[in-house]
Design brief:
A hairpin with a 3-residue loop joins β2 (41-45) and β3 (49-52). The protein is mostly beta strands and 754 residues long. It contains 6 helices and 45 strands. 6% of the residues lie in helices and 55% in strands.
Length: 754
């Protein structure tokens, strides 16, 4: 026994002697804006010790091997930098210079628990985001469908889910939620059109329910958009195209370069868009956006970010039309059956964030946000099915105040030589709507019959704890636990509401605990493997919860991912995963009918495959292939299909990159046929569509052409099983659809200036 103790003691002495006892820490910042850079990979060699910078741009190492000589800093969009460890002073700031993005610069780093980080960073730098649709399509495997011509939130499909307009995907911008809970049209309604695409600097996303920071709606995943802290150049852009389409965009720095050198930046961006679109019924679509952002260093320990934005949009819509009506000649493929469809929406946001670095280098983040939101939508899906005289037009309307807070505390410590990163956070949001309305109308504003009317108050308070432990230089464990509490209040102003017992105030509450686990193994500097497990959820509409008294109104989702990130050669990046998800049964509020529908348990299994290849500096290939097999568990075989759930889908393209001359891209989107109802007796037809972008870019200007649906394919963007009745005709159960864009060319000219 004594010999064993002596041997262990000697082993500890030998191990200890092989390490330097000093802690090496520092900060990474942009050399132009002096802002901290999050997500920089820092590697110490020999020894291959790796760290990734936090939101304050900080990295740290402890007990480095005595053989360590060089520390290297690498980030997508920045020049790689190296410094001899002997020349590095702990606590100093390293400034990285912006650099043309190359896939060869991407590093598969140990300690990074987001397997999509490398792909998301390269895609947005190399492909860019040119319009509001591309904002969402940047996520591999995510498909969107628009059935109001751009004024309404898109329908979102991901991982075998019809997410409707955001029910099972959590979306935010600069930490502020995009999704609207208990919204007049649908739960989780996520209208991202208040974001000006040109202001987006990067996008962080993860698929699945494995991140403890994300609570409500994060079932298929989450998407965080981050706007730029400062502009590299001022810009004015003019666009004009077919169907009376026009757009003007301006982005201007409001402070001088001297202010940037003093860690202060402030800019403003605004756009106006008008289009009649490709439908037979002119849409007269118009949208105005304004955004401004200040980012500055208050003192050595505090960074303050303030932003404000506003959106106003108004449009007419062609809406959905029955296939049967097109087939018998009652309406054209791009026609409309109710010219009164359309809407008006607006959203104004205020957002304040303060990041504080404590003397011990712990990081505290505090955020307050506010949104004023209005929504007024007019649609008619069934025409004269119910009311054979006036028609079935409905109006969905609300006015909302949204208040929120996000706070987090980040602490790094060591257990022996192994880093332990602890993050604790609090989230709270209060949604208060007045006169949330669903009404049967005619000619938009003439009331025929009220269906729903009331005030909604919904409070969601959440807390989470994240522990990331680097067991070895290769193996990282991230364990998270989240708790969410909900309080609901509905002031029903309609005594005739069939789902409630008269007018008055109804209250309910519920809560849920969501554990998460991520295991990452770094096999080499070219291969990483991961296994994720987690529980997530989406909340239900307040009008469901108070009616059902909390029963099954906070359904859980369980999932697992087994995947890999590979970089077999410097210019090829691969990401692959097989995944599984299970959802409990739940109640669903049908916003178009004001009814409560029951949805049983579902199970899905699938795989995702993404490839990025840059054979030479000027050519970038990307391709994503996705498969999902989903079924309802409690229904008999053959009648257990999940309506509209994507099965096979793929996107990809080739981008030609030349910063001073010709550049552009050629892209495709493929969505295979899928079931439109439970027994697959109706089919939602797939499509294959191509888009083309051509630009000629110089230092002071750019001239370009964008063509959507290059080969003028006739395709259906959204499809639903719907029972419809045209005036004086019999009811028909079939597919109703909104036509996808025709060949649509838009030209632009941009002017860049200081």
């Amino acid at each position: 026994m004594l010999n064993k103790l002596l041997s262990l003691f000697l082993l500890l002495l030998i191990t200890k002697a092989g390490f330097s006892q000093s802690q090496v820490a520092g900060f990474i910042a942009d050399n132009l804006t002096h802002s901290p850079i999050h997500g920089v990979t820092v590697i110490v060699d020999p020894g291959n010790r790796t760290d990734v910078t936090d939101e304050g741009g900080r990295f740290s190492f402890r007990n480095l091997p005595a053989s360590a000589r060089v520390i290297t800093f690498s980030a997508v969009g920045y020049s790689k930098a190296s410094i001899r460890l002997a020349e590095f002073k702990s606590g100093q700031t390293i400034y990285l210079a912006q650099h043309n993005t190359q896939l060869a610069d991407v590093i598969i780093a140990a300690g990074n628990t987001n397997p999509y980080k490398a792909i998301s960073e390269t895609d947005i730098k190399l492909r860019g985001v040119s319009n509001s649709q591309e904002v969402l399509r940047i996520v591999p495997g995510l498909f969107i469908g628009q059935h109001q011509g751009g004024g309404k939130a898109e329908q979102i499909f991901l991982r075998g889910f019809d997410n409707d307009h955001g029910t099972d995907i959590n979306m935010s911008v600069d930490g502020m939620p995009i999704n609207m809970v208990s919204q007049a049209h649908g739960q989780g309604y996520a209208d991202s059109h208040f974001i000006i695409p040109g202001t987006i600097e990067n996008t962080v996303y993860e698929k699945g329910m494995y991140n403890a920071q994300k609570g409500d709606l994060a079932v298929t995943g989450f998407v965080d958009f981050h706007t730029a802290d400062a502009l590299n150049t001022n810009m004015i852009k003019l666009e004009a195209g077919q169907y009376n389409t026009y757009r003007v965009l301006g982005m201007v720095n409001l402070l001088s370069d001297k202010a940037k050198a003093n860690n202060q930046s402030w800019y403003a961006a605004s756009e106006y868009r008008y289009s009649n679109s490709y439908f037979d019924n002119p849409q007269h679509f118009q949208r105005f956006n304004f955004f401004t952002k200040y980012h500055g260093k208050l003192n050595a320990n505090n960074w303050l970010t303030l932003s404000a934005s506003t959106l106003y949009s108004k449009w007419n819509a062609s809406g959905q039309i029955p296939e049967s009506a097109v087939n018998d000649g009652s309406v054209g493929f791009y026609g409309a059956l109710n010219p009164n469809e359309g809407g008006i929406t607006s959203r104004t946001n205020l957002n304040a964030q303060l990041i504080t670095t404590l003397p011990n280098h712990d990081l505290i983040k505090n955020q307050l946000y506010y949104s004023r939101y209005k929504f007024d939508l007019h649609t008619n899906f069934t025409f004269y099915l119910v009311d054979t005289v006036n028609g079935d037009e409905i109006r969905q309307r609300e006015a909302r105040n949204l208040y929120g807070y996000n706070g987090s505390y980040l602490h790094e410590s060591y257990i022996g030589n192994h880093k332990l990163t602890t993050e604790a956070g609090l989230n709270a949001r209060l949604d208060a709507t007045t006169n949330s309305e669903l009404s049967h109308t005619v000619n938009r504003y003439t009331l025929v019959d009220p269906i729903k009317l009331g005030d909604i108050t919904e409070l969601n308070a959440g807390a989470y704890l994240n522990e990331t432990f680097q067991l070895t230089n290769r193996f990282t464990v991230n364990a998270g636990l989240r708790f969410d509490q909900f309080y609901y209040k509905y002031n029903n102003k309609l005594a005739s509401d069939s789902t409630l017992n008269g007018a008055g105030i109804y209250k309910a509450n519920n809560n849920i605990i969501s554990p998460k686990l991520k295991l990452n193994y770094q096999a080499s500097n070219k291969a990483q493997f991961y296994w994720f497990l987690g529980k997530g959820f989406h909340s239900n509409d307040t009008r469901v919860v108070v009616a059902e008294k909390g029963l099954q109104t906070l359904p859980a989702a369980y999932g697992t991912d087994l995947g890999t990130v590979l970089k077999p050669i410097n210019n090829l990046l691969l990401n692959a995963a097989v995944w599984y998800s299970y959802l409990q049964k739940e109640y669903v509020y049908a916003g178009d009918g004001g009814t409560v529908d029951f949805s049983g348990r579902t199970r899905r299994i699938g795989f995702d495959l993404s490839a990025r290849y840059q054979p030479v500096k000027t050519i970038y290939f990307d391709a994503d292939l996705n498969y999902a097999h989903g079924r309802a568990i409690d229904d008999p075989k053959g009648a257990n299909y999940i309506p509209l759930a994507p099965v096979w889908s793929s996107t990809g393209g080739i981008t030609y990159i030349f910063k001073d001359g010709f550049n552009g891209s050629f892209r495709y989107r493929w969505l295979r046929d899928r079931p439109a109802n439970e027994d697959y007796s109706l089919k939602a037809e797939g499509y294959f569509v191509n888009d083309l972008v051509l630009n000629y870019t110089k230092r002071k200007y750019e001239i370009g052409l964008t063509i959507n649906n290059l080969f003028n394919v006739k395709w259906k963007e959204t499809q639903f099983e719907t029972v419809t009745r045209l005036k004086n005709q019999q009811a028909v159960d079939g597919i109703a659809f909104t036509a996808g864009t025709k060949f649509f060319a838009v030209g632009h000219i941009s002017y860049f200036f200081k």
